[in-house]
Design a protein that fits this description.
Pfam families: PLDc_2 (PF13091), PLDc_N (PF13396)
Keywords: Cell membrane, Lipid biosynthesis, Lipid metabolism, Membrane, Phospholipid biosynthesis, Phospholipid metabolism, Repeat, Transferase, Transmembrane, Transmembrane helix
Low-confidence stretches: none
Distance between the termini: 44 Å
Shape: globular
Number of domains: 3
Organism: Brachybacterium kimchii
Structural class: alpha/beta
CATH superfamily of the largest domain: Endonuclease Chain A
Number of helices: 21
Membrane topology: Multi-pass membrane protein
EC number: 2.7.8.-
Strand content: 15-25%
CATH topology of the largest domain: Endonuclease, Chain A
Length: 494
């Protein structure tokens, strides 16, 4: 008691020494803890933040420094991954066409090892790049549902654009179709004006729905990272028709009246699937449903023989996210980039690669591969927009062509084409967040016929873009270069 009284009376004298001791403890602890099992770039960024502002940086590290799922989810994910491998064996394997390059078979084997999903043949696939048209077409498919409708979107909300979709979902539920609906907690809730009406509609029609990755920082009794998100976009009807891609379930101005007035619109790419691949999409949905609801959907509702095997495309699902040991999407992209012989076209709204991907693209360009990168001229995220700009100089100097989708539109599509052999499209950006923090879904499609469809899409995007030259980029203001590089350093803190 006397000691405490003395400390209170001499707080002004003692406080500097306490602060000094705490400062030293935080810095030493950071050096011992931060680099453990972390990329050198990320570790350096965290250490820099902690050394400059230890009383701020260290608490942020405790909050945001762990990229793992919560303990309970990790245990569930182990069960899910095991179950996924077992059920994936019931999906028939397919062989690539004889004229497929040998390296494509290596990519297929890599995907099977990382994500457990086989390559399937006899699939049909159509692309849709018109925003409202894709929502109308998905609604039309839902209206044909007889048994099940499975919906999963990072952002979902009820507005005038999405009303046809939700009306179709409500009608399906009212006639006895089992509807399961998932949406990311943070991704959807931040659009409160459309999020709340959506939940009311789902409840009114007795539709079972769950927010994915609910934000509960102290869940499992430990401080947990709030920005681990489920970024997938999936729709499966009766296990026969599947949709996936980059588009969220919200109007194309993202509920922004100001953006709508200024002409801001998101440009997306969605793919509609039929054939055996739909079982893979459905199985991926089933894993997320189990994680959120605790219900394991019966196998005959998830993996079933396809009634339509008239297609000619080979397809394979590639799931990725913090529930996997490795960055599945990053490994696939890099494998394809190093294998490319003629051409790489990459479309990514958020392009913040790690060093391995940057080197893969630069190496491809240096060895004569024609590399073209599509990004948005106008970014919707300040930090990411400036961070990705910091990579343009190295890419342009290597010979990469950079196409900037002209403002005020925002190119939000995400896909890659390599030579005339393979396409990868889905929800995954080419940024560190998509590699480490977000649960993503990608689809690899082989075949020159599908590549022709993709080239038509690329031609549309190219007609709406302006090519950035190295000469032009070198003339940008010095203060912008400093800002870009600063944001690049901040983006490494994961």
């Amino acid at each position: 008691m006397e000691t405490w009284t003395w400390l209170v009376e001499h707080i002004v004298l003692v406080a500097p020494y306490v602060a000094l001791v705490l400062d030293v403890i935080l810095r030493v602890t950071a050096v011992l803890v931060v680099p453990r099992n972390r990329r050198p770039g990320s570790a350096f960024a965290w250490l820099l933040a902690i050394m400059v502002f230890p009383l701020v940086g260290f608490p942020l590290f405790l909050l945001l420094g762990n990229t793992q799922l919560p303990r309970k989810r990790r245990r569930k994910q182990v069960v899910v991954n095991r179950l996924m491998k077992v059920r994936a064996h019931d999906i028939p394997d397919s062989d690539l066409d004889e004229d497929s390059p040998s390296w494509l078979q290596s990519a297929v084997a890599l995907n099977r090892e990382l994500g457990a999903y086989p390559l399937t043949g006899n699939n049909s696939a159509d692309l849709e790049i018109e925003y409202e048209a894709s929502i109308r077409r998905m609604a039309e498919d839902i209206r044909t549902a007889r048994e099940t409708v499975h919906v999963l979107f990072y952002i979902a909300g009820l507005d005038e654009t999405t009303r046809p979709f939700f009306d179709a979902v409500a009608e399906a539920a009212d006639r006895g179709v089992k509807v399961r609906f998932l949406y990311d907690h943070y991704g959807s809730m931040k659009y409160w004006s459309v999020y709340r009406p959506m939940r009311r509609l789902l409840d009114a029609h007795g539709i079972e729905h769950y927010p994915m990755m609910p934000i509960k920082p102290l869940r499992d009794g430990a401080l947990q990272r709030p920005d681990l998100r489920n970024h997938r976009k999936l729709l499966i009807v009766d296990g026969e028709v599947g949709w996936m891609g980059s588009q969220n379930l919200i109007d194309s101005a993202y509920a922004s009246a100001k953006g709508a007035r200024e002409g801001v619109r998101w440009q997306e790419t969605m793919i509609r699937l039929r054939g055996p691949i739909v079982s893979e999409v459905n199985l991926l949905f089933g894993t997320d449903w189990y994680l959120e609801s605790g219900e394991s959907i019966a196998e005959d509702q998830v993996v079933r023989p396809s009634p339509d095997t008239s297609g000619t495309y080979e397809c394979q699902i590639v799931p990725s996210g913090p529930g996997f040991v490795l960055e599945n999407n990053l490994l696939l992209f890099n494998q394809l980039f190093y294998s490319a012989e003629k051409r790489i076209t990459a479309v990514s709204p958020y392009f913040v690669p790690d060093e391995s991907m940057l080197y893969a693209l630069v190496t491809a360009a240096k060895r004569g591969v024609e590399v073209e990168l599509f990004v948005s001229e106008k970014g919707d995220q300040f930090l990411v927009d400036h961070a990705q700009c910091s990579y343009y100089t190295a890419l342009l100097e290597a010979g990469v062509r950079i196409q900037r989708y002209e403002a005020p539109k925002i190119l939000h599509a995400k896909h890659v084409t390599v030579d005339d052999s393979v396409t990868v499209l889905g929800s995954s950006n080419m940024d560190i967040r998509s590699f480490l923090l977000d649960m993503e879904s990608s689809l690899m499609v082989g075949g020159t016929d599908f590549m022709e469809k993709m080239h038509e899409v690329e031609d549309v995007y190219r007609s709406r873009s302006r090519e950035l030259t190295l000469e032009e980029w070198r003339t940008r203001p010095f203060w912008k270069q400093i800002l870009d590089n600063t944001c690049r350093l901040a983006s490494a803190i994961v």
